[in-house]
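Question (not urgent): is this output format expected?
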Amino acid sequence: MKLDKKDLLLYAVTDRSWLDGETLESAVEKALKGGATFMQIREKELDAEKFLEEAKKIKELCKKYHVPFVVNDNVDIAIAVDADGVHVGQNDMEAGNVRELIGRDKILGVSVQTVEQAVLAEKRGADYLGVGAVFPTGSKADADYVSRDTLKEIYEAVNIPVVAIGGINRENIMELSGSGICGVAVISAIFAQTDIEKAAAELKKLSEKIVKA
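Got this back:
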């Protein structure tokens, strides 16, 4: 699957800590109905069997809505469910090794915080970059803060699409206007909301505004 940068407009990352009795599948479907254009399943606590089971369900949903589906960090699970790709951080498997394992036709996303990391990730085969945290975030306690200037410098240093991540919500998203990003990646701004579908729809509209800015 070749990545179209328009697919990165509203990038949703799952988080089961917000489910409150709901299934992950149901929460993801609401986000897709609301307009999420890209989906990453992120499971740091699940065992492999349960993770595989969840990934299969989410993959089918994404297929139904024609939205790319990637797996965070776990290359084995991504290959097992034939996901559209994998997203890795700086402390996960090195991007070049991931590319060798998943092949040329899968999507590879890499989290970066600096221009150096960004340039290297592109060289090693990344299709897009997740840059952040652009705002303080509760989802990753150890997330390094990336300034708006650095975000713009990263965008200018690479030829692949850049997505901002980290603490982005309805209130602060417009601050990212003019940074060159082609979308935003969010977790709690969608999955922690009482009306997931509505939250996704609102964020998509706002993301369209900043991308055009």
